[in-house]
């Protein structure tokens, strides 16, 4: 059966954009891991995995719906199911952290910082791990395969899935929205105090504003999207009659060619899930992957830092006296005096380097004059 040209183009675009988004998301990931930014690290990790998996699925099932990789599907559908919750949980971690900074409850002591880091890890990891554990209880049968998209988890919309999955998605979205509202109120009331807190925590003001924008976009999208999915699935509500009924013919694997699933799924189509993952990844890169610090890392990563440095020196005629600054989201040192001493040491070394270079230039000029004479 010949596929419509519109779907052929869309399928190729989905596959290509999945890989491009995966590449863009993993670029800033090492930097966020290095500075222990738990929320951004988890968010980027889940998006990177889901986009790369969609890229693999797009290649394997480009023009058919045969069961050619059952082991891959068994692994993928579970991580896919946990990943949807993982993205929401990571967004909650980001919203909570930004709210704490905006409301001046950010902690500076090392023990409290360690406790806050473990709290962020618990918020970001416990919900998706619980979805892995609970998946068998809500799973209808093994999985379905859609031509052009690959395998997907099949979970009937029942009272059990509402209590174990969809309800928690909505709760996490509401919590994220609550933290976002607190952040907006704090920004309107005490913007000057927030700048002082950012100075104490060595956090870039630009990065903070981008995190706030990320949290606000998530607030505007999470709750409406989860609500839309629940409302769309409500007509297909599956009455709960026990696990024997839910898992009847459990080993079944349904295979849907494009001509069939495009007719069956008119509202919330399977390809919408892939586009949503791509959108989340592009949003993350646009807001948190193009900061000054991230761009500096990209230059060093691709060997462009020396090129840009040489061009700046040629245009200015002198080395730049850029003040060193921290790139961390929250600083791990517990003693502010130690941080100030370290900053003074770095600055003094920077000044000594400039003085030494000036002396060398003066000596070379004198040598040239003497040689001319």
TrEMBL record:
CDD domains: 7tmD_STE3. InterPro entries: GPCR_STE3. It is a multi-pass membrane protein. Its main location: membrane. The chain crosses the membrane at residues 13-33, 40-60, 75-95, 116-138, 208-231, 273-291. GO terms for cellular component: plasma membrane. Belongs to the G-protein coupled receptor 4 family. This is Pheromone receptor. It comes from Cerrena zonata.
